[in-house]
Amino acid sequence: MVALYALNRQELTDLVLSLGEPRFRADQVWGWLYDKGAPDLEAMSNLPRPLREKLQAAATLGTLSVETEQIAKDGTVKRLYKLADGQLIESVLMKYDGVRRTACISSQAGCAMGCVFCATGQMGFARHLSSGEIFEQAARYSSDLRLEGERLSNIVLMGMGEPFHNYDAVLHAVRRLMSDLGIGARHITISTVGLVPKIRQFAEEGLQVKLAISLHAATDEERAALLPVNKRYPLADLMAACQYYAEKAQRRISFEWALIAGKNDTPQTAHTLGRLLRGLDAHVNLIPLNPTTEYGGAPTGMEAAAVFVEILESHGIPATIRVRRGIDIDAGCGQLKSKVARKAQ
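^ that's the sequence the OP posted. Answer follows.
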C-alpha cells in the first residue's frame, strides 16, 4: 500500500495516472489532502466512487496510527503514534494566543544522544524515521486545523530524536513542509544537540530555516555531564561551527537552555554563558525543566529565571523564558511513550 502523505505532487500524479484516471483527478486529491484537510479517502466527495475505491485498494493516507492522544488544559495536543513496524513516536500541537499553531515533530524513534534529563535520551535509539514519517506528523495536524478553519503556522523539529543524526531525511521533509504544506522557512526550526559537521553542512544549504542548539551548560565539564555528545564536540568546536553558520547563513541562532534548579541556573552560570556567547548573533530560550522519572532535577523558579535573563542581557544576549506547554499531559519529549511503556511492563 502506498502512503499518500509520502508522495510529492509529481509522485501523486503518477499514481493517479497509473490507475487510469485523468491528470486533473490528481489535483483534486492533492487539494483534499492539503487544502481541505480530508481525514480519509471517503471524505473526498467530488471524486467518483470508482476512483475512491481504486485509491482505497492501492493507498492509505499515511502510515501513522494514533496509539494515544492527550489534550491539555491549555489546548496542547499530544499524540503517541504507532509506526508500521510497531515503533512508537510522539508529536505535539501547541495552540498559542492569536493564530500561531506550532507542531513539534519527531525525527527518530528514540535517540542515540543520551542526554540525561531527556526522556527520549533515556530510552535509547531504535531507528531513523523516513522523510514521509517526519512529514506526515505535521500533515496530520495541518489537516485537523484545516477542518477547524485554522492553519498550521510553525514547525519545530524538537520532538524525539536528533534531527541532524537523520540529516538527509529531515532536510527532505523540511523541503516538503515548505513546498507542500506552505510553511515558510522562517517558521521552521531544527534543533540539534551540536553535531558540528552537520551544523557546517547545514550552513551551506541556503535555507532560511531557523537553527536551535540544545546547550544547557556553559563549560565542557558541566555540559558533558548532561549531554554526552560534548565529549566528541566540545564547546570550542561547537561555538566555532555556530559562528560559521551565523556568518554564512546570515541568521541568528537560538540556544535552548533547560533551567534546572541549583544545577545550571545560578548567576555565576549566567555570567559564564554570557561570556561564551558574546559576539555571536544569538538568542537564548530558557525552559524550566520538564521533570522525568529517570532524572532527579527540578525546574527553576520564575524569580531565579528572571535574574538569569537580566544577567544575560547585561552581556548583550537577549533571552526569553519560554512558557511550558502541556505540563498536565506529559508533553515533554518522550514522556508519553515512557509512561505507556511502563504500563505495558
